[in-house]
Amino acid sequence: MGRTRGSSRGLVWAGVLGFALSGFFDGILLHQILQWHHLLSLVPGVDLREQVLWDGLFHALMYVLAALALAGLWRAGRAGAMPLGARLGGALLLGFGGWHLVDAVLSHWMLGIHRIRVESEVPLAWDLLWLGAFGLAPMALGWALLRRGGGRPGRGGAALAALGLLAVGLGGWGLRPGDGPYTVAVFGPGLAPGRIAADLEALGATVVWAGPEMDVVVLDLPADRRWALYGRGAWLVGGAGLPVGCVGWSRA
C-alpha cells in the first residue's frame, strides 16, 4: 500500500517535471529562437525592458518547478517507488502537454497576455494548431502510455540522472545570450546612462535602439562579447532577430 502511494506521488512529480520542461521548451523556442512573443506581449504599457525581465522570471519559475519535481522523484526513488518505463514517459508527456493547455486557456484566451504569434492576422489559428500539436497530442499519448502500464516502480537512478541533466541543460540554454544577429540587454537599476554607454562603447557595441534611460538596449555586438555584458551590470542578455519588429510589438 505504501509503495503504491509513493508510486502515485512519483507520477505526480513526473507530471510536474514534464510541465516545467514544456515551459523551458516554450520559452526557448517561442521567446528566444523564433521570437514570436514575450510572456507579456499584449499587456499595455509594458516596455521592452519589462518584457525581457518577465521572460527571465518565467524561466526562473520553471527552474523552481523542475527542482521541486526532481527532489520529489529522488525521494520516490529512495523508497523504491519511482515510476519507470511507460508510466514515467506517460506522466512526463501529460505534464508536457498540460503546460500548453494551461497556457492556451489561461494566457491566450482568458488573460490575453500573449498569443502564439502576436503579429499574425489569424492568431486563433496559430493558438489552436500549437495546442493540438504540443498540448493535446502529447497528452493523448501520455494517457495511452499510463493506461498501458509496464515498468515496475524502482529506484530509477539512471532515469533520474538523465532527467536532471535534461532539466539543467534546458534551463541553462534559456540563460544563454542567444544566437540572433542582435543582442538585447537589460541593465539593473542605479546605473547612469552615461556609464552604460561608455561600457558599451568599450565593448565595441553599436546601439541599434535604446530606452530613454539606457536600461534596455538593442545592440549590434559580436557574439563572443555578449557574456561580457553581465560583467557591466546587465541582468539579462538575449539574442534578437529583427529589432524593429521586436520593439514594435513589445510596445517599447
TrEMBL record:
It holds the Pfam family DUF2243. The chain crosses the membrane at residues 12-36, 56-76, 88-108, 128-146, 158-175, 229-249. InterPro entries: DUF2243_membrane (IPR018719). The keyword Oxidoreductase does not apply. The keyword Transmembrane applies. It comes from the Bacteria. Keywords: Membrane, Transmembrane, Transmembrane helix. This is DUF2243 domain-containing protein. It comes from Rubellimicrobium aerolatum. The lineage of its organism: Bacteria, Pseudomonadati, Pseudomonadota, Alphaproteobacteria, Rhodobacterales.
